Amino acid sequence: MSKATKIKGIGSILHDKGVAFRLWAPHAQKVSVIGSFNNWNGTQHKMQAEKDGYWYTNIPKAQAGDPYRFLLTTPQGEFQRIDPYAREVTSSVGNAIVHDPSFDWQGDDFQIAPWNELVIYELHIGTFNDREHLDQPAQFSSVSARLGHLRKLGVNAIQIMPVGEFAGDRSWGYNPAHIFSVEISYGGPLAFKQFVKRAHQAGIAVILDVVYNHLGPSDLDLWQFDGWSENDRGGIYFYNDNRANTPWGETRPDYGRGEVRQYLCDNALMWFEEYHVDGLRFDATQFIRTFQAEDVQDLPEGWSLLQWINSQIVEKYPGHITIAEDLQNNRWLTKDVGAGGAGFGCQWDASFVHTIRQAVIASQDEQRSLDAIRDAICHRDNDDAFDRVIYSESHDEVANGKSRVPQEISPSDPKGWYARKRSTLAAAMVFTAPGIPMLFQGQEFLEGGWFRDTVPVDWDQRDEFHGIVRLYRDLIRLRLSRDGFTRGLCGQFTQVYHLNDDRKIIAFQRWAEGGPGDDVVVVANFSHATYENYQLGFPSAGLWTLRFNSDWQGYNDDFANHPSTDVNAEPGDQDGLPWHGTLSIGPYTVLIFSQSAHPAV
User: Fold this and answer.
1) How many CB atoms lie within 10 A of CB 148?
2) pLDDT per position as a tens digit, 301-344
3) Cα separation of 386 and 393, whole Å?
4) What is the DSSP annotation of 102-137?
């Protein structure tokens, strides 16, 4: 490499002849690199101006692990700034670290499951498994110790709340100070790579939550980065007019500025390239594609940014998933970019979670609307049943004034019969309705209260409610047709063919291609009553084997163990189907039936 050769990239770039540094600071008059390699002396390593406001230098004596900053001389004064592209920092207000991105992935060629076979488990690194260190948040390594539990549960993807460096040691993660750096209190970048590798070895994909709708707002070194700003706003990385306003401060990135667009796109691609994540969940995309002035207005450059990032991911990392959290059920989010859509693989479905939560939280049976439940089951934005993520709990739904579902059902007795029966009724809807099912941490053992970033998951409840854990495990096993009986739960098609709002009984069929081993019938009782000799239609004649009964006593000692049995479907029109059968069902119970692909002779 000749002396004049410049290294490509932005930030600190480790190479065989030192470390190259490149920075975008268009309003700076002079820039130098200061760090441990020059005793923080701003006169030793001055950067050369490049076109379009970039600055560059190479420092042969710098090496991986060295702390550094940029020293900017501007008309507004001198500023020491943390590298916006820093892959590692000492803290949110500390120094950048020259990072060595190399890691032995040992042939990691993991591939995420097809989207119709995904089961997602959302978790928060800081609270998932920190029992032994209550004064410190959990780390990637301690979460790794619970991967066996998730694998046994049947989960094949975990979605982790944001891990970009944030202010302080405890946070939900939605206040990113340095989006390229992994939170040091969680273990930093190396620990995150080790975590992803271990998850892949356990057969579990990793989907990462990213925050591009705002930055900070605290410990935000990007604010007025090179001294310039307008209207006393954020400067080069942010809008400097009313488009800057978000619910979290005046820190919306300027999606119309090329360098900022590149900054956010580079960040999204980094997680795939350097950390081998399998997907990204974009937080609050509503606030990327719109802004609030006198009223809600479109941000066309925000929309085009989402299109560009998704197009880049599809091109460079095909098969990986992107998920939008928009909660407006905007069908264009999951349309292809070529058709004018934003290009997301799927989006969180607000209509499903609100409907199902309300149905099980309502104190009186007559308050439960089966019409609304039917609409929630059948809702789809476009042609693909799996372009939505469905759930009854998420970090947003169990905080901000709302509790976990068992607590909402029975605030005075969140571990009692009603809480257990109706929360598992909601879970059964999640795993039998079309869509990508998702759990929130601890849901499988009735985690109570509400989510806080200072309160760890209570793993003792896993033993206390081992039967409920088994119920979730059985639901996931059926959802993924591990025994070949219920392939229809991964299928595109759904028909709600029986709806009795007086008795609060709903029945629906799921199928991919139809026939034995594929057709699935789900019957749900949203009432406290028990029904005997209840007649409803079936899609085909013959024996329908009962695969799941949520009232089974093995799931909890005080479940009634109502003697629901297999059903023999006989000729005779019922519910618009040519066959019918008779069953019995317990209170707040879900039954799942299917026919064997190879019946015994």
Assistant:
1) 10
2) 999 999 999 999 999 999 999 999 999 989 999 999 999 999 99
3) 18
4) ----TT----PPPGGG--EEEE-HHHHS-TT-TTS-
Using CA of residue 495, residue 498, residue 501, residue 503, what is the dihedral sign?
A: negative
Whether the CB-CB separation of 345 and 321 falls below 8 Å is answered with yes
Neighbours of 190 (CB within 10 A): 15
> Which residues contact residue 479 at a Cβ distance below 8 angstroms, ignoring those fewer than 6 apart?
119, 154, 431, 432, 437, 486, 489, 490
Mean pLDDT of the chain: 96
Nearest C-alpha neighbor of 110 from the set 269, 317, 420:
317
Answer yes or no: are the C-beta atoms of 569 and 521 closer than 8 Å: no
**Type of residue at 293:** A
Tokens of 544: 């329908």
Residue in 229, 266, 207, 277 with CA at minimum distance from that of residue 84: 266
Query: Global pTM?
Result: 0.97
Give the tens place of pLDDT for each residue, 425-446. 999 999 999 999 999 999 999 9
Q: Tell the burial category of 505 from Cβ atoms under 10 Å away from its Cβ (0-12, 13-18, 19+).
A: buried
- Would the pLDDT of 2 be above 60? no
Q: Which residues of 260-270 are buried (b: 16+ CB within 10 A; e: fewer)?
A: bbebbbbbbbb
The CA distances from residue 285 to 161, 214, 454, 479, 523, in Å, are 15, 10, 27, 29, 36
pLDDT at 3: 53
Token pair in block for residue 280: 């990204």
d(CA 296, CA 239): 16
Q: Sign of the CA dihedral 297, 301, 306, 310?
A: positive
